Amino acid sequence: MHEYSIVSALVDRVQREADAHPGAVVQRLHLRIGELAGVESDLLHTAFMTFRERSVCAEAELAIEPVAAAWRCMRCDLPIAPGAVLRCPSCGRPAGLATGTEIILERIEMEVRDV
Ligand SMILES: [Zn+2]
Asked: Could you give the angle at the alpha carbon of 104 between the alpha carbons of 69 and 55, nearest 5°?
């Protein structure tokens, strides 16, 4: 499943970050996920609960911030209003997606405990 491969890569990446900080315990991960990224937040949570076991994320929470899709003209950078025709009102060029497809690990909160 798509969400499982995302979480697997995510936990690997956090593991590498945490390895640089001996004694670090990951508290929380902040993700930004575009509404058009094709990711179900519920499934991502479920996958995370599975993958975090016995990983550096075992005690971590997953915070997901949804990002709305936004369209802009690719030529004059004019924003296209939500629900409007996906064509630039100024130059007539087709609009392109500015945001909404991203999957970003924005922040990792870690606590360093004595080892
Ligand atoms: Zn334009």
From this structure: 140
